[in-house]
Amino acid sequence: MMLDRLVRFFTSLKLTVVLLALGIVLVFWGTLAQVHLGLYKAQNQFFRSFFVFWEPAGSGLRIPIFPGGYLIGGLLLINLIAAHARYYQPGKKKIGIMMIHAGVVLLLLGQLLTDLLSTESSMHLRNGETKNYSEADRSFELAVTETTDADADKVVAIPEPLLLTRGEIRHSELPFTVRVKTFYGNSSLAEKPGPGFAEVKTTGAFGSGLWWRELPRETVVDRRDMPSGILEILTSQGSLGTYLVSGFLARPQRFTHQGRSYELTLRPRRFYKPFSLRLVEFRHDKYPGTDIPKNFSSRVRLQEPETGEDREVLIKMNTPLRYRGETYYQASFDPDDLGSVLQVVHNPSWLTPYFSCVLVATGLVVQFMTHLIGFAAKRNNAGVPGK
Asked: Residue 232 in contact with residue 245, Cβ under 8 Å?
């Protein structure tokens, strides 16, 4: 009896209508919330969650008040699959319906995969500069680099979420332990004291004597968090000191252990490539006699040693470079017109929406033609004597 009720509930047309209505409200509400929360916080709070929470000021409580995007989308997916499995009857006249349902299911799954698997980063190149990595726009990592060998550096990258736990971090390739004493996901760093600032106290290298404070996380599109933290390097012989790391610091913290040299750098998260791009020339063309932009383009040289590929590519506003599952867009440039910023998008499921739309459109055509042909056949038969 309970199973029958669950089946009727998940296959109900009323559930479909309610979920679609809730989805409309969620999209409207989440869109308005971007004005005050910012794009990224609104996305996480409304669309990348199972519930929208209300947080009363000063209470520390999180009270669920509305279903989030994951919950509504998940229930819609279950409702669609369950209803199709219950009511679908095999036959030539139902092929179009099956294709339409499959297209909608693929669209929902594709959006979920895009949300979970896609990454966006950027590659900043100056004229003549070569890089084989892009950098995340809104996440950092701690790079522990062994610089003893002048010909090659050995780098261990520790992701920001581990630093935020403020515990001890051990890695098989590091002969010491990194203890996170303090870490702010967003911070301000100054040379002089100010309201809310505390003095930075460290024992290793530079940083002691600066002033810092924790800031709320950024949610505005064109601004990003600047994390800072104090780390302690622990060995079996004791502590090697405490060090300040920060997204504001341009130079690394250096120390030695067992005759080997190391550096600590808090940098944007890097995504390394098996190939490199060299900026040959950036062009910022304007209409003659005006300051109106006519064209932004980057001529880059793509080199991949393993395959022997070596060619030049022109990346323009509406002509991106697609290579090895990634898309490189012309996104921005330096004020002096001597540098370019390429937006790098990695989305393994980027073809899914296209397949979904083609499948739904084909299903609609097939279903329409099936009924049209059947109707025409009945009409012809009705006009023939003896039939």
From this structure: no
Banded pLDDT at 385 (limits 50, 70, 90): low
Question: Does 12 or 310 have the greater pLDDT score?
Answer: 310
CA distance 75 to 50: 11
Residue 92 binned pLDDT confidence (cut-offs 50, 70, 90): confident
Could you tell me the residue ranges of all domains in the chain?
2-117+351-382, 119-131+272-346, 140-271
In the predicted model, what is the mean pLDDT of the chain? Answer: 89
**Structure tokens of 98?**
């099956």
What torsion do the CA atoms of 49, 167, 155, 205 make, to the nearest 10 degrees? Answer: 130
CA distance 134 to 151: 22
The amino acid present at 348, given as its one-letter code, is P
The pLDDT tens digits for 201-253 are 998 878 888 999 999 888 777 788 999 999 999 998 999 999 999 999 989 99
Counting Cβ atoms within 10 Å, is residue 66 exposed (0-12), middle (13-18) or buried (19+)? middle
pLDDT value for 387 = 52
What is the rounded distance in angstroms from the CA atom of residue 343 to the CA atom of residue 329?
5
Question: How far apart, in whole angstroms, are the C-alpha atoms of residue 330 and residue 165?
Answer: 36
Question: Residue 182: CB partners within 8 Å, gap ≥ 6?
Answer: 166, 229, 230
Tell me how far apart the alpha carbons of residues 267 and 248 are, in angstroms, rounded to a whole number: 9
On the question of pLDDT at 384 being above 60, the answer is no
| DSSP symbols for 89-102 | --SGGGHHHHHHHH
In contact, 313 and 300? CB cutoff 8 Å: yes
**E strands of the chain, at which residues?**
51-54, 63-67, 119-126, 130-146, 154-159, 168-169, 177-184, 187-190, 198-199, 211-214, 228-235, 238-246, 253-257, 260-286, 293-304, 309-316, 321-323, 326-333, 339-346
Locate 236 and state its tokens.
Answer: 């079996």
Indicate the pTM of the whole model: 0.76
CB 150 within 8 A of CB 160: no
